[in-house]
Design brief:
homodimer, 322 residues, alpha/beta, Rossmann fold, six-stranded mixed beta sheet, four-stranded parallel beta sheet, 13 helices
Chain lengths: 322, 322
């Protein structure tokens, strides 16, 4: 048995989360196709509720909880998209959500999570403090941890984006995709995507993309074991986590290549999507786009699904235009 | 007989231009609905070819030309979205397009028009110089003028956006719209929109929106005659033209109200759409959004179609984020 959820788990997740998420559109762009030398089909999870694909995994995990367990609430640590998705989904289910955030998290992110009904608990900005604060909450409340990626239920939820993308490309009366690409951080999205892609009758090639400054997945997949974080700054703030043993084992069997991009290439590709497609994507979503436009992956002449993971960013601090 | 094209002309335009334009999607946004106190249906012409609705009028006018006339080419003056649409459509028809631009037009706009195959001819930045340069080109080449709005063929084309919007809202199995809104500059888009809206079995309310700094349509509709341009700067660079006698007579009979917004409200509303809807709109498109969000029009509790006219702007000079 392979590690991780099966295609059937992903299909069940799709049925389960259907009422709680948007079926996001698929867009195309002739100008970007020309640059990439490939035919690109963009799955617009930037239009997803809370602005990212994280709603998929969070809602699958939270709606899978038995009634009594769910009633005690959920807890997670994150200052980003996963926190917003957990908070919003918990509110949808009518249960409390505790979100552990470091004291140095941006005020705007805290406000966003509170806006979705999450109860923010502060901790010092260290791993130890975060873990002990989470432990305290769990002991006090009995809340269930919803990990952002080291969780089969979450991975199954993330795999539904690729499922919809494949269906919608078929509905366009177009030939099936040859390949699919997603950014990789902790590996939840790419794991779900890869399971969906490799379970098709004609399996797709699976590509990941990562900032050079956060290339632990690239190194871990090369060595076959968990490599430490690069610990350098990246503008792609959603891609700073590292693989877990679960996501490594899923990806190890299924990923064909990881494309790396530099820090300056990320805002360049982000701006290209803003200008040409007229949609807002966040820096993390620009990483796979950059890898394709700059030919860092063997994608030429292929029909490639691109998961645009989210559209949340701070408009007071844009990497261009000032 | 009323002035301007009929609903039948607009329907014929829709059939004519179908192969040359995108059928743009309709989007909704719960957060903006809540602010407006209305149910908003956004027609995303920012996703249109060349990034604006101008493709509709340009392609209707250009594909209506008899073969022999068309062969001599088309000419227009503009440094904005209409120029790009004329250049691209002319290339599609295989005929030359001359675009008269003032010497002080931004280099990026000139490059965009040339990228679509337009032949840019420079003139001094005065009305006289522009007119005489256009006259010279017409005498030399026999090219047909494609005016940005003082032209029934162009107005008929612009009215197709509202037609699609009404159809697509019906396809959503939703009740028909109560009202529709578009920005007003020379009045071509609002004229076509108003003719479509007022020809329905249950006529819609028709709203326009304008910057206070360019409120000539507001004043002209109040007085019933063409009032001079306000001649103040507005960030909504697409809204600096003034009504013609043709568009005034169309709008005079059909527009229920014009909402005015200040200069600071325009980037505020633009940012709201970028942040909440994750789509890029240009300042001109933010003007109707601002008027709705700020309750400058009697739109509360209505189902309102909003024509997002375009998504072209200079990402090197954004009004926020620097």
């Amino acid at each position: 048995m392979s590690a991780g959820p099966s295609l059937e788990d992903i299909r069940a997740a799709a049925r389960r989360i259907y009422p709680y998420i948007h079926r996001t559109p698929v867009m195309t762009c002739a100008a970007l196709d020309e640059m990439a030398g490939a035919r690109l089909f963009f799955k617009c999870e930037n239009f997803q509720k809370t602005g990212s694909f994280k709603m998929r995994g969070a809602s699958n995990a939270i709606f899978l909880l038995p009634e009594e367990t769910a009633a005690r609430g959920v807890v997670t640590h994150s200052s980003g998209n996963h926190a917003a998705a957990v908070a919003r989904t918990a509110r949808e289910r009518g249960i409390p959500a505790w979100i552990v955030m470091p004291t140095n998290a941006p005020r705007t992110k805290r406000i966003a999570v509170e806006g979705y009904g999450g109860q923010v608990t502060e901790c010092a900005p260290t791993l130890e403090s975060r873990e002990s604060e989470m432990q305290r909450i769990r002991e006090r409340t009995g809340a269930t941890l919803i990990h952002p990626y080291n969780d089969e239920r979450v991975i199954a939820g993330q795999g539904t984006a690729a499922l919809e993308l494949l269906e919608d490309v078929r509905d366009l009366d177009a030939p099936d995709l040859d390949a699919i690409i997603a950014p990789v951080s902790g590996g939840g999205l790419l794991s779900g995507t890869a399971i969906t892609a490799k379970s098709q009758q004609r399996p797709l090639r699976v590509f990941g993309a990562e900032p050079q400054n956060a290339d632990d997945a690239f190194r871990s997949l090369a060595s076959g074991r968990l490599e430490p974080a690069a610990d350098a700054y990246t503008i792609a703030d959603g891609l700073r986590a590292t693989l877990s043993s679960l996501t490594l084992s899923i990806l190890n069997e299924r990923v064909d290549a990881i494309g790396l991009v530099t820090e300056s290439e990320i805002p360049w590709a982000m701006r290209m999507v803003w200008e040409r497609m007229k949609i807002i994507i966040e820096p993390s979503s620009a990483v796979p786009v950059a890898a394709l436009l700059l030919h860092r992956l063997p994608a030429e002449r292929l029909r490639v699904g691109v998961i645009l993971s989210g559209g949340n960013l701070d408009f007071d601090h844009l990497p261009f235009g000032g």
